[in-house]
Write a structure and sequence with these properties.
single chain; alpha/beta; Glucose Oxidase, domain 1; binds 2-acetamido-2-deoxy-beta-D-glucopyranose; Kynurenine formamidase; KFase/CYL; KFase_sf; signal
Length: 259
């Protein structure tokens, strides 16, 4: 027989776990799955299952294993500072404390509606966010929502062209990258497009370079839900612990309860 006391204990235990963030019904995934739709940059190795072995034994036993190959910079992935700065951290050198961050989300879907692939994060958008929410907190990831993920399943639209010289998509401006670097509070920048530098323009990558020189990592091809809160969410970004990596596939999750 369940007593009132037992029920009260149970409720208190659940409340304790919730308050301490140990369980939640509201953990969401900001990662695109890795499969044969996964986008790779330029001529980079597309995700491929290179070997499969499935044995469905007549006695009811089962064995399955697969091998795969992919470029470091494919799908939802992290760019290590070492990608564009020789003295930058490699994937396995980024301190773990920087991979658990407070999320500053900037909603630029209206810019994309107006300017299409020419939409850019500008310093004014960062200043507007601070006007509404107060200063960017320390140990933040700036997450820019362009609503570009709506095209993820149409690769040529999402990238803007068949090869990397033709790529066109929303990105950061170098001025915004400088603002972010100068803030000294940002550990990473993420967005729902293939890159933090726009596809067009000179082959130099000023946004990558500015951020890399400040040991700020990038998260590209992030699957950002339209209703993701603009402040207060925590992001947990776990790149594969790839020794010497210039980048790596990353699993990004967030607990959005109580937001
Ligand atoms: C992609 O993966 C799906 C699901 O596993 C499969 O049905 C399809 O044949 C694959 N396509 C190619 C081109 O490999
Ligand atoms: C993908 O996008 C291109 C460019 O907007 C468009 O021409 C094409 O019809 C789209 N393909 C699909 C399958 O929706
Ligand atoms: C990219 O595609 C365009 C149009 O098909 C072509 O003119 C150009 O030579 C290609 N560039 C590369 C590097 O393949
Ligand atoms: C993002 O901006 C668009 C356009 O201004 C607006 O319609 C939408 O509600 C905003 N999304 C969120 C989550 O605030």
């Amino acid at each position: 027989m369940i007593t009132m006391k037992a029920i009260t204990c149970l409720i208190l235990a659940i409340t304790y776990l919730k308050v301490n963030g140990l369980i939640s019904n509201n953990v969401i995934d900001l990662t695109w799955p890795f499969n044969n739709k996964t986008i790779s940059w330029g001529a980079g190795k597309k995700f491929e299952i290179t070997k499969e072995n499935f044995v469905d034994g007549p006695d009811g036993t089962w064995y399955g294993s697969r091998e795969f190959a992919l470029a470091e910079h494919s799908g939802t992935h992290l760019d290590a500072p070492y990608h564009f700065y020789k003295n930058g951290w490699k994937v396995d050198e980024i301190p773990l404390s920087r991979l658990i961050a407070t999320c500053v989300k900037i909603n630029l879907s209206e810019e994309t509606e107006k300017f299409g692939h020419k939409a850019r994060l500008l310093p004014k958008h960062l200043n507007d966010w601070e006007q509404r929410n107060g200063p960017v907190p320390p140990n933040s990831v700036i997450l820019v929502y362009f609503n570009w993920g709506q095209y993820y399943h149409n690769e040529s639209k999402y990238l803007g062209g068949e090869n990397s010289t033709l790529y066109r998509f929303p990105a950061l401006s170098p001025q915004a990258a400088q603002w972010i670097a100068d803030s000294n509070k940002v550990v990473g920048v993420g967005l729902d497009t293939p890159g933090i530098d726009p596809g067009e323009g000179p082959p130099t990558k000023p946004v990558h370079t500015i951020l890399a020189k400040n040991q700020i990592y990038a998260l590209e091809n992030v699957k950002i839900p339209p209703d993701f809160p603009e402040k207060g969410a925590q992001l947990l970004s776990m790149p594969m612990l790839l020794s010497g990596g210039t980048g790596a596939p990353v699993r990004i999750i967030s607990d959005v309860s109580n937001k």
